[in-house]
Amino acid sequence: MKTATNTMEVTVSRQIQGAPEAVYDAWLNPNSPGGLWFGVERAILNVAVDGLFFHSVKHEGRSWAHYGRFVALDRGRRIEHTWVSEATKGLESVVTVTLVPKDGGTEVTLRHVNIPDDDQGREHEGGWTWYLDVLSKRFA
Predict the structure, then answer these.
(1) 17 — phi, psi (to 5°)?
(2) What is the rounded CA–CA span in Å between residue 118 and residue 110?
(3) For the chain, which residues make up each domain, given as ranges?
(4) What is the pLDDT of residue 5?
(5) How many helices (H) and strands (E) does the chain have?
(6) Distance of CA 31 to CAs 16, 26, 37, 91, 93, Å?
(7) Residue 1: pLDDT above 90?
(8) Residue 23: which of 122, 115, 100, 125 has the closest Cα?
(9) Over the stretch 49-104, which tens digit does the pLDDT of each residue have?
(10) Closest Cα partner for 1 from 78, 91, 88, 104?
(11) Which residues, including other chains, have CB under 8 Å from residue 33's CB and lie 6 or more apart?
(12) Mean pLDDT computed over every residue of the chain
């Protein structure tokens, strides 16, 4: 695994009006609006611990490839996977999504660590905020 001396982390949270199990299922289902892999150019998923994923996202007129491996899958509680892309400069970063029941819905917290501390690395906060907004609208 590549490492860099100047890395950062991003944490974003959102209250979603869906049960933790439903939010978990939507996040991992490429056919579910609001999920991470819904509507991407191409997605290959093996949703299992040590299963690999690839997806390509069209953004700003070009395709951005993302790769990773599922580290932990605990339905209704936690999703953890590695994340490698051009924007991580080939670094294996880690994304952890925690789901906590709250006020009849789910508090979703996404933490992304080992991101390069540069302009592209800082753009991850906006990208993850956008994904959580889309997920929230799916359950609104």
Answers:
(1) -85, 55
(2) 20
(3) 7-139
(4) 65
(5) 2, 7
(6) 19, 8, 8, 28, 25
(7) no
(8) 100
(9) 999 999 999 888 899 999 999 999 999 999 999 999 999 998 999 999 999 999 99
(10) 91
(11) 26, 39, 134, 138
(12) 94
The burial of 86, by beta-carbon neighbours within 10 Å (0-12 exposed, 13-18 middle, 19 or more buried), is given as exposed
Give the whole-angstrom CA distance, residue 32 versus residue 37: 8
CB neighbours of 25 closer than 8 A, spacing ≥ 6? Answer: 32, 75
Tokens coding 77: 């509680």
- Closest by CA to 26, choosing from 75, 59, 72, is 75
Q: What's at 64, amino acid-wise?
A: W
CATH number of 7-139: 3.30.530.20
Helix, coil or strand: residue 86 = helix
